Amino acid sequence: MAADALTAIQKMQQDNAVALHRIVESLRQWPGHRTVGQDACQAAVSIAVHSDHDPAFQQRLLRLLRAAVTAGEATRAQLAHLHDRCLVNARQPQLYGTQHWYRTDGQLQPHPIADLAQLDTRRARADLPPYAEQARHLRERHGPLGSLSASATAEPIPLPERCAA
């Protein structure tokens, strides 16, 4: 990706985070689907997931989103995505297998995942499809995806040098 395009994406992500911060401050809660609609609630999740530049804000959003799920204002799947992203950013294994990175050969690979044997059980509890189905979808959308093998638990490229999907 060209440096100019990457800079533009990073600026857009920061601008979106500032706007989400204003919305959260105004509402004093997560912008849930009954308050702002399904699409806007999902957009807030997307912005939160891509607010890597502000981990403290991202953690605050995770707490607000967790409360919104409890109140029926957001989905468990939305929470799983943000929870995984926060874990990955803290360099901990993700729980739901929602976060991936591009290897140097251009292939997508999941960030390390805790307890692979229980992955689909956790995904089902979060209303996510089985991982194999997600992997197929990602292959169709982004190209080949590495298998969930020992290599999938290898350390990913350090955060500043990779783009997550």
Describe the structure.
With 165 residues, the chain is mainly alpha-helical. It has 7 helices and 2 strands. The chain has helices at residues 3-27, 33-36, 38-49, 55-70, 76-89, 119-125, 131-142; strands at residues 100-102, 108-110. It has a two-stranded antiparallel sheet with strand order 1-2. Helix 3 (38-49) runs parallel beside helix 5 and helix 4 packs antiparallel against helix 5 (76-89). Mean pLDDT is 87; it is low at 147-155 and 157-165.
What key phrases describe this protein's structure?
about 160 residues; mainly alpha; two-stranded antiparallel sheet; 7 helices; globular; disordered C terminus
Sequence-ordered SSE layout with sheet pairings:
Elements: H1 3-27, H2 33-36, H3 38-49, H4 55-70, H5 76-89, E1 100-102, E2 108-110, H6 119-125, H7 131-142
Antiparallel strand pairs: 1-2
